[in-house]
């Protein structure tokens, strides 16, 4: 249980403009990962040649024969991974240079943690990370059912057969996975902003920009959760109402 290593899994699709900075943030960690795996999702730009030509053997590049979506790309990366933990990252995001070192220290001290996430920022990472930011707090399952606070590039999860994304889902597939894991494992949160996102959540240009599809995906995740945990079926109507109210509220506030 004390042997901890990190496999970084990065799905990439037409990421030539950002993949260099993303990979630099992985390879320049104060505690290097065991491996960095980039899964090129059959993009049409120079992402794969950049990874192959500029990073060589430092990065394992897997190229899919056809575009399959981020869930399939992540699953391919997970299947190829050898680390005890999977640290997810997207091809337009970057990590704080001490991320893996500080999480490694935390996991050594708390071997019961299988699922950890942290906060994020959109600007520069803070120059000073306070110790208070690294005090883990358990997130109750009911809170995760009400809303998903976990950005996938902020999640570090112990590798196991149950760690896989539902490739049938095109929206909120990460939320479906998080709920499925949270039913069996405690979810822990630290408030250190160790990932810098390349774009705000739900911003234009990404899959998450389709707000109606995101709400539908959220409901699909709740249904899948209840299917695996039937005791939660009575909560579905209230969760659906919550989803509708969230969608209407954001629609009214949208400029």
Please, could you describe this protein's structure?
The protein has 255 residues and is of the alpha/beta class. It has one domain (6-203): Spore Coat Polysaccharide Biosynthesis Protein SpsA, Chain A, CATH 3.90.550.10. 36% of the residues lie in helices and 18% in strands. The protein contains eight helices and nine strands. Strands 1, 2, 3, 4, 5, 6, 7, 8 and 9 form a nine-stranded mixed beta sheet that branches. Helix 6 (173-182) runs parallel beside helix 7 and helix 7 (211-228) packs antiparallel against helix 8 (236-253). The mean pLDDT is 91.
Which structural traits does this protein have?
255 residues, alpha/beta, Spore Coat Polysaccharide Biosynthesis Protein SpsA, Chain A, 9 strands, 36% helix, globular
Structural class by sheet pairing and helices:
alpha/beta
CATH class: Alpha Beta
Gyration radius, in Å? 18 Å
Q: What is the number of helical segments per DSSP (H or I, 4+ residues)?
A: 8
Helix content: 25-40%
Q: Return residue spans where pLDDT drops below 50 for at least 5 consecutive residues.
A: none
- The oligomeric state of the chains shown is single chain
Report the portion of residues in β strands: 15-25%
Q: Helix and strand succession?
A: EHEHEHEEHEEHEHEHH
The CATH H-level homologous superfamily: Spore Coat Polysaccharide Biosynthesis Protein SpsA, Chain A
End-to-end CA span: 50 Å
How many domains, as an integer? 1
By DSSP, the count of extended strands is: 9
What's the story with the biggest beta sheet?
A: 9 strands, mixed
What do the pLDDT scores average to?
91
- The CATH topology is given as Spore Coat Polysaccharide Biosynthesis Protein SpsA, Chain A
How does CATH name the architecture?
A: Alpha-Beta Complex
Q: Could you say which overall geometry the principal axes of the C-alpha atoms support?
A: globular
């Amino acid at each position: 249980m004390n042997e901890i290593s990190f496999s970084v899994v990065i799905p990439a699709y037409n990421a030539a403009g950002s993949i260099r900075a993303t990979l630099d943030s992985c390879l320049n960690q104060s505690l290097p990962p065991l491996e960095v795996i980039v899964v090129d999702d059959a993009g049409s730009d120079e992402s794969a040649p950049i990874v192959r030509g500029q990073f060589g053997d430092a990065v394992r590049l897997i190229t899919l024969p056809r575009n399959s979506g981020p869930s399939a790309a992540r699953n391919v990366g997970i299947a190829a991974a050898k680390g005890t933990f999977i640290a997810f990252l997207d091809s337009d995001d970057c990590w704080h240079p001490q991320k893996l070192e500080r999480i490694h220290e935390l996991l050594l001290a708390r071997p019961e943690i299988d699922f950890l996430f942290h906060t994020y920022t959109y600007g520069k990472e803070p120059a000073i990370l306070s110790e208070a930011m690294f005090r883990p707090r358990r997130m109750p399952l009911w809170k995760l059912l009400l809303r998903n606070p976990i950005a996938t590039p902020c999640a570090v999860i112990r590798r196991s057969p149950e760690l896989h994304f539902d490739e049938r889902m095109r929206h909120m597939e990460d939320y479906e996975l998080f709920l499925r894991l949270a039913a069996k494992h405690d979810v822990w949160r630290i408030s250190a902003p160790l990932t810098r996102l390349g774009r705000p959540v739900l911003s234009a240009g990404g899959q998450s920009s389709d707000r109606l599809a995101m709400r539908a995906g959220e409901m699909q995740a709740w249904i899948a959760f209840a299917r695996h945990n039937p005791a939660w079926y009575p909560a579905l109507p209230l969760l659906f109402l919550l989803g509708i109210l969230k969608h209407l509220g954001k629609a009214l506030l949208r400029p």
